[in-house]
Amino acid sequence: MAVLLALLSAALYGAADFLGGIATRRAHVTAIVTIAQGSGLLLLTVLLPLLPTAAPIAADLLWGSAAGLAGGIGVGLLYQGFAVGSMALVAPVSAICAVVIPAVASMALGERPGALTLAGMGIALMAIALVSQTPAPPAAADARPPSASRWPAGLGIALMSGVAIGFFFLCLAQTRREAALWPLLVARLTSTVAFGLGAVVTRVPLVWPRAVFGVAVFGGVLDMVANALYLFAARRGSLSVVVTLVSLYPASTVVLARGFLGERVTPVQGVGIALALVAVVLIVVGN
């Protein structure tokens, strides 16, 4: 059951990220994240009274708040990466970092990964190196000789996004099953308020064409459902396995980006993306 929930969560995360990336290319990232986070918060607020009675304690709510800050920053950076770079590049790099963070935390707590897990982490590093390669632009006649390659737009943002999302997964998984979805409600409330204040301080308008608004709202709803599925999965199975399966979300993002946006990747980047998915699978099997 945990594996199925994690895979469903991954599919919805990827779809939500695709929609967020589309909206961010048409409006400011702070406004997009604020509306997306707010729509998810509204959905959970409406549904929570219909769910079984929960008994959250202060620790559950604190972990939820920390998850909200980390997750909000991670999603904001991810959408910004989509706005300036290729979804086919940003999504896999972010996912790899989101996998590595829980793995490092597990080792710090005494876990020792097996051979397959270590192999997966090594391949993940190779994937990042390959995905980050793009041909250098032609140089002018009077310019200095260019280097063989350069880091593509969005790569650094993707790395930071993955770290933040990894901490989001870790924090949310620390909550107890008895708390039900209350930690997730606190997490979404925290991120919505934080980005709302950010929009006010930076004077980012929260009103745009209806089509963009609808995309942001739908993406936020999908993201909230994905969060709930992840939380249920993390409480029923091994955290390292669940987090790694959830981190397969770039697969659906890349498929949607290729299908609807016609994005193309170089052969080297294609190998890197394929290795990223292989790395995720190896980490799952190793755990």
Brief summary of the model shown:
It contains eleven helices and two strands; from the N terminus they run H-H-H-H-H-E-E-H-H-H-H-H-H.
The largest sheet has its strands arranged as: 1-2
What kind of sheet is the major sheet? 2 strands, antiparallel
Assign a percent range to the helix content.
over 70%
Write down the secondary-structure element order.
Answer: HHHHHEEHHHHHH
Q: If helices are DSSP runs of H or I spanning 4 or more residues, what is the number of helices?
A: 11
What is the number of E strands? 2
Estimated radius of gyration: 19 Å
Shape category = globular
Low-confidence stretches: 139-149
* Helix/strand class: mainly alpha
> In percent terms, what proportion of residues is strand?
under 5%
Separation of the first and last Cα atoms: 17 Å
**Mean pLDDT level:** 82
Domain unit count: 1
Keywords:
about 290 residues; mainly alpha; two-stranded antiparallel ribbon; 11 helices; 2 strands; globular
Word description of this protein:
The protein has one domain (2-49, 56-111, 150-260). Helices cover 74% and strands 1% of the residues. It contains eleven helices and two strands. It has helices spanning 2-24, 29-47, 58-84, 87-108, 115-131, 155-173, 182-201, 210-234, 239-246, 250-261, 267-286; strands spanning 134-135, 149-150. A two-stranded antiparallel ribbon has the order 1-2. The longest helix is centred in the first third of the chain and has 27 residues, at 58-84. The protein is globular and about 45 Å long. The two termini are 17 Å apart. Mean pLDDT is 82; it is low at 139-149.
